[in-house]
Design goal:
Blueprint lengths: L11 H4 L1 H17 L18 E6 L5 H12 L3 E6 L11 H11 L2 E5 L3 H10 L4 E3 L7 H13 L8 E5 L4 H13 L2 E5 L8 H9 L4 E4 L2 H5 L4 E4 L11 H7 L6 H4 L7 E4 L11 H4 L6 H19 L5
Parallel strand pairs: 1-2, 1-3, 3-4, 5-6, 5-8, 6-7, 8-9
Helix pairs in contact: 2-6, 2-13, 3-13, 4-5, 6-13, 7-8
Bound molecules: phosphoric acid mono(formamide)ester (CP) and norvaline.
Phosphoric acid mono(formamide)ester binds next to helix 3.
């Protein structure tokens, strides 16, 4: 059996625009080829037969955990799950040693962690691909699924107007990174003091994206193609009353949707706090594609895994 490549996926720019486009195209093809199959059946080519992915969690997860597991099953491989609390990581074993041990035992590692520096350290010491399953800084796997969802719903990325509402967080950072790579525009509506990291805004602009920062949600929503929000309080953040109060005017609700294009999509990575960052009316409306988006985590992870092993394209 020939050796596989070792490409880490810590940020979208590790792959670049051409590879992201190839991931989306591959996800669309693989998804269509297995429509109506039992979810646990392997794809006809089983490209990762015999390969094992370790899923390492220092934070909670439903979608990332299940979608990576199902993705590996559909690619012919399997996963094992390490929760920090029940592994030696939780007792202080170093990331460097964990990376070296896991590299001898499994074929790839996904890490969800509170500290982005830990995944950089993991990649530095691992000799198998390392995948970012969410850090305090970014959530690149989510955004491959989001772009797939937007395209599946008839939108084209170059020139797309995407509007973000609420907290300038890890998910927004990866959207901004994607905007620079895939040439779409982002209107960011946050309360003062909750803007995204300027590094990601600059990255998007340097790539040619138009990025608008505003404290006026209606301005951001006007004629937008896609409206996106996320929880006001991310995992690991302090749950402060002042932050919730500041976020309230940024709720995605029916009044805000009327500012957007009539066929605008609503995206949310989930889990949602319906009644906070999004009203029930919008969450349950025909604009909302959040459960397609969640399902697409499987199809996106498959393409990301294939890219990490040099098997895409
Ligand atoms: N969207 C997302 O990453 O969900 P989980 O936290 O459930 O993995
Ligand atoms: N911003 C959220 C995303 C959860 C998938 C968090 O980090 O908790």
């Amino acid at each position: 059996m020939s050796a596989l490549a070792t490409q880490h996926f810590l940020e979208l720019e590790d792959a670049g625009a051409d590879a992201i486009a190839a991931m989306i195209a591959d996800a669309i093809d693989r998804k269509a080829a297995r429509a109506d199959w039992p979810k646990g059946c392997a794809d006809a080519d089983s490209p990762l037969a015999g390969r094992v992915l370790a899923l390492v969690f220092e934070k909670n997860s439903t979608r990332t955990r299940v979608s990576f597991d199902m993705a590996m099953r559909q690619l012919g491989g399997s996963v094992l799950i390490l929760d920090a609390g029940s592994s030696q990581l939780g007792r202080g074993e170093s990331i460097a040693d964990t990376a070296r041990v896991l590299s001898r035992m499994v074929d790839a590692i996904m890490l969800r962690t509170d500290d982005h520096a830990k995944i950089v350290e993991m990649a530095r010491h691992a000799s198998v691909p390392v995948i970012n399953g969410l850090t305090n800084r970014s959530h690149p796997c989510q955004i491959v699924a989001d772009l797939l969802t937007v395209i599946e719903h008839g939108k084209t990325l170059p020139g797309l107007e995407l509007a973000w509402f609420g907290d300038g967080n890890n998910v927004l950072h990866s959207i901004l990174e994607a905007a620079g790579l895939m040439k779409f525009n982002v209107r960011v509506a946050t309360p003062a003091g909750f803007e995204p990291n300027a590094e990601f805004v600059e990255m998007a602009r340097a790539g040619g994206a138009r990025v608008t920062l505003t404290q006026d949600p209606a301005e951001a929503a006007r004629d937008a193609d896609v409206l996106v929000t996320d929880t006001w309080i991310s995992m690991g953040q302090a749950d402060a009353d002042e932050k919730r109060v500041a976020m309230e005017p940024f709720q995605v609700n029916a009044a805000l949707m009327t500012e957007a294009k009539p066929d605008a999509l609503f995206l949310h990575c989930l889990p949602a706090h319906v009644g906070e960052e999004v009203s029930e009316e919008v969450f349950e409306s025909s604009h909302s594609v959040v459960f397609h988006e969640a399902e697409n985590r499987i199809h996106a992870q498959k393409s990301i895994l294939l890219w990490c092993f040099g098997l895409l394209g």
